[in-house]
Design goal:
The complex is a heterodimer.
Chain A: H1 2-7, H2 31-74, E1 78-87, H3 105-110, H4 114-126, H5 138-148, E2 156-162, H6 165-171, H7 177-189, E3 192-196, H8 199-202, H9 215-246, H10 251-265, H11 268-282, H12 290-314, H13 318-326, H14 331-359, H15 363-367, H16 388-396, H17 401-432
Antiparallel strand pairs in A: 1-2, 1-3
Helix pairs in contact in A: 2-17, 6-7, 9-12, 9-14, 9-16, 10-12, 11-12, 12-14, 13-14, 14-17, 16-17
Chain B: H1 3-32, H2 41-77, H3 88-103, H4 112-148, H5 157-197, H6 200-205, H7 211-215, H8 227-259, H9 262-277, H10 280-302, H11 312-336, H12 340-348, H13 353-382, H14 385-390, H15 408-416, H16 425-458
Helix pairs in contact in B: 1-2, 1-4, 2-4, 2-5, 3-4, 5-16, 8-11, 8-13, 9-11, 10-11, 11-13, 12-13, 13-16, 15-16
The chains are: A mainly alpha, B mainly alpha.
Amino acid sequence: MTGQAALTPHGATPGAAPAPRIAAPTDWRGEAMRRRIARRYAAERRFRLMGLAAVLLSAGFLAFLLVTMVGNGARGFTRTQIALPIDFQRSAILIDPALLTGGNAEQALAGANLPAVIDKAAETAFGENGARMISPAAQTAVRKAIIADPAILTGTATITVPASEGIDVAAKGQGSAANEAAVARLQQAGALSTGLNLRFLTASDGTDPTLVGIWGALKGSLLTMAVTLALSFPVGVFAALYLEEYAPRNRWTDLIEVSINNLAAVPSIIFGLLGLAIFLNLMHLPRSAPLVGGMTLALMTMPVIVIAGRNAIKAVPPSIRDAALGIGASPVQVVFHHVLPLALPGILTGTIIGMARALGETAPLLMIGMRAFVASPPHGVMDPASVLPVQIFLWSDEVGHGFIEKTSAAIIVLLAFLLTMNSIAIYLRNKFEKKW
Amino acid sequence: MSGTMTLFVVVALGAIGWIVARARATRMQAEAGRLATNSLPSQHGWYVALWTALPALVFLAVWANVTPALVLDSVLQAPAAQALPADGFTRSAILGEARAIASGAQAAAFNPQSMTLVEPFRDAARHYGGMGALLAVILAFAGGAYALSRVRPAFTARRRIEKLVMWLLLGASLIAIVTTAGIVGSLLFESMRFFSMVNPLDFLTGLKWSPQSAAMGYGNEDAFGAVPLFWGTIFIGAIIAMVVAIPLGLMSAVYLTQYARPQVRKWMKPTLEVLAGVPTVVYGYFAALTVAPALRSFAAAVGIPGASSESALAAGLVMGVMIIPFVSSMADDSIAAVPQAMRDGSLAMGATTSETIRRVLIPAALPGVVGGVLLAVSRAIGETMIVVMAAGLAANLTLNPFASVTTVTTQMVQLLTGDQEFDSAKTLAAFALGLVLFVVTLLLNIVALRVVKKYREAYE
C-alpha cells in the first residue's frame, strides 16, 4: 500500500478529484519497516548461503570421491612381503645348475617344479598353512633370485616373496580373524615387510589379486587411443575446415551440420551398437581388438573435434584471409598456410578434451566385446586387448578385498592420465589464446 | 614381397616422384621465368607424387580383397585337394586351418589333412602376392611417368591439386552423414528383425521383462515388455538425478555468477567442471562401493521395506552429481544472456540481489534453463556405466527409490555381453532398445535446442 501511495504525484491538478490523499512519507525508521527490511536481508543471506552450500556440496562430493579412491587405491601400489627361507639343498627342485649359466635360464627354471618347492619351504617355515600365505607371484621372485645368483641353489637362501591376498589384506588391516592372527605371528617372526608393488605397473590381468597388473590394459588403452587419434583428428579437422571455410550454404551443408551436432549428443552406448553391427558383424573384424575399439571411439570423438575446430577457425579474424587472398594466395593456400596454423592451438585443445573423454569411455567398448579376460599385453592393434576403464569395470565385479584396492589403484592411474591430458589442454589454451 | 613391403615401396616411389618433379619444375621455372609458369614447383611435385602413389594404393586395396578367393581357387586345383571330404563343414575347417598355418597364424594342425594343403596355400599366396606387388609397382611407374610428362610451364598443377584437396575436405565432412546413416540403418535393420519376432506393441506396452525366459524357450510372448525398463530409466535419469542436479547446478551457477568474488569463481568453476570429466566407470564404482551400501544400511535403519543393495537412489544420486556441471554451465549461459538493463532496473528499484535473481533473472532465463535441463535429461538416460554398476538387473515397476530397478542401457549391456548366437530375439532386443533410446534422446535434443534458440532470439 505504501508503495502505491508514494507514487501518487503531490501536485495533482486541482478539481480532478476530491482533495488528493497525501500519503505520509515512508517511515523507514518505523518498527514495521525495520522488521520488513530485516526479513528481506535475512532472506538475502539465506539465499546466498544456499548458493554457497550448493557449491560446497558439489565440490565436497568431488573431494569425497577422490579421497575414497586415493584412500582405497594407495594400498594397491604397495604389497606385503614375506621373507621366506628356502633350503634348496633339501628341496625337490629339478634343475641342472649348468643350464642356468646359458641364455635358457628362464626356460630351465620354468620346468624346475618351483611352486612345489616354495609351498614346501613355506610349510616348513610357517606351519601347515604356510603355503597359503604365499602369493602365486612368489615364483617370479624366486626365479629372479636364482638367476641373479645361481650359487644359492647349493644352500639355504632367504628370499623376499609377495604374500598371498589374505595375508596382504590382513596386513593392511581388513582381513579375516584367522589371517590377522597369521599376520601377527609373521610379524613376531620378523618375516613381514612392505614393498612397492612394481608388478602392478608391469603385469596384465590375472586371476589372483596379487598377480594382476595394469600394464596390459594401459597398453591396450594407448593403442586404442592411437587409432582413435589417427582417424578422428584428420577427419575432424578437415570437416571443420570444409564447413567453416568452403561449404556453400545449401541443404547438404545443413544436413552435415545437423548430423554432426546430433552425433555429439548421441549416447555413447549407441556408438557401441554401431560398432557391433558394422565393424564386427558386417566387416568381421576381430572382437576385443584395439582397432575396432579405436574406430568406434573415433566416430564418437570426431564431432567433438569438429565443433571445437569450427570455433577455433571462426576465431581467426577475416582480415588474415583477406590479406592472404589479396597477395594472390588461392583459397586452399589461405586456409592451409594461414588459417589452420592460427587455429591449431584451439583445435588441439578440443582434440585433447575429446581424447580424454574417449579414454574414460567404457560402454561402447563393452558392446564390441572388449571385456574378455586378456592376460598378456597386446602387441598390435589386431590383438585382443583390454583398456583401462574396462579393466576397472571387470575388477569391480570381482569379489574379495584384494581386488577393491586394485580397482581403486587402477582408477588412480586412469584419473592421473585424464588430469594430465586436461592440464595440457588448459596450458595450451592459456599459452596460445590470442585476443585479436 | 609382403604386403607391407609393397606398400612401403609404393609410398617411397611417390616420394621419389615428388623430388624428381619438383627438381624438374624448378629448373623449368628458372628457364621460363616465374611469371610464365602456372604452378609452384612443389605443386608439380605433389601432382606427380599423387599420380604415382594413389592408383597403386587403390589397386593394392582391391587386390587384397580379391586374392583370398583366387588363392582358394588355385588351392582347390591342387592334387591334394582332391582328397578333401565332401562335407562342407569339415572341408572349410580343413581349408581354414591350412590357410592359418600357411600364413603363420597357427603353428600346428589339429587335422592331419590340413598339412597336405599348407604347401599349395603357400605357393598360391606367394604367386598372387608377387603378381600383385609387380602390378602395383608397374602401375606406380606408369602413373608417375604420365604425370612427369605433364610438367610444363602452362600446366595447371595447382588447380588439380586443390580440386583433390576440396574433395578430401568434402569427403571428411560426409563421414558425419555416413555415421548417422550407419547408426540409423543398423538400429532400424536389427530392430526390424526383432519386431518380426516380437510384436512392437507388446514391446512398447508390455509390463513384464524377462528375456532370459525367452532365451530358454518359453516363447517370446510376455518376455519383452519394456515398460519396466522405461520406468527405471525415467525414475533414475529424469527424476532422482534431476532432483539432485537441478537445485545444486542452478544454485551453484547463481552463486558463482552473482555472488562469488572473481578469484573464487576462477577456481571453483573449473573444479566443478572436473565432476563432468571423471569417467563414468569411476562414478559407477563409487556408487556401487560406497553410496549403495550406505543407503541400504540407512534404509534398513529407518525401516524401509524392499531396500536393495543395488538401489535406484544410489545410481540416481551419483548420476545427479555427474550432471551438476552440465546444468550449471547451461544456467550460467542463460543467466548471462539476460540483458544487463533488466538486472540494473530491478536493483535500482530497491530489490535485493536475491530478489532480483529470483523475480527477474531466473524467470527471464527460464527457457534457457529448461532447455539445459532437457539436454541434461537426455544425457542422463543415455548414461550407461553408473546404472550398470549400481542399479541392478531386476525389472521392477516400483516407486520405492531404495528398491532395485533396471534401465534401458543396463539391459542393453546385459543382453549383448555373453556368448549367444546373434540371431536370437534376446540379442536383437538390445538394438530395439537402442532405437528407442536414440529416438528419445534425439527428440529431447531437438526440443531443447529449439527452446534455447527461440529464447536467445527474444533478447537479440
